[in-house]
Task: structure prediction
Amino acid sequence: MAGVLLVTAAMVTAASVAQTVPVPKPAPKGRDGGAPTGGPAVTGATQTPPNPIIPDPRRNVPSSIFQTFDANQKAQAAKVSAYLSSLSTLVGNFVQVGPDGSKTQGDFYIQKPGKVRFEYDAPSPIDIVADGSSLVVRDRKLATQDVYPLSQTPLRFLLSDRIDLMKDTNVVNVSADDVFVSVTIEEKQALVGTSRLMLMFGAKDGQLKQWTVTDPQGYDTTIAVYNLDATKKLDPGMFKIDFTNYGQSPG
Result:
């Protein structure tokens, strides 16, 4: 699912339950995910869904906290930080590939700091909503939701108001080619283990293209985003968590 999009998602973030990090788990094969009425407004020509770039499962990402970076890597990370910090809202579509290869899609809405909404295309009943402090994975069909602190999800990096990746996160890899600039962040948590968030940006336009969340068990969830619009004004009510009509999931 979206793990963290940021968002991420994300972020990211499709599924009916959440993993421990948490990132949304992949939906069963054949489920496509739930879209908001009208879908996101976009600028320019509407794009077709991209094919997410699935990371090589054999990749060996440096894990040392003493990893050093050359001037070019630091400059690339600074550009990414400036881009993320420049965003206040972001709306678009997403395609998600789960660890089992299942593909889902839908729409997402970000309002910084800390707010995001993922709605998966029908027939999936799943919404993911963060209100700035909590994140819920909601099942509209069962009227249940799982609640997590946003601070414990990788999406918080995408949703930060301002961020300097080199100072505010544990960056373990920065790479660039003619197509993508990629930044990998690693987190070690005593109770759940090590997770990673790999953010990928267009080398030419600098825009967010996708992210991959790797959970402590080593499973990847990738979310590619497209039809991005950073100008749309969003209704704050989209990010309110409903604790009245949705109960806690059993168990």
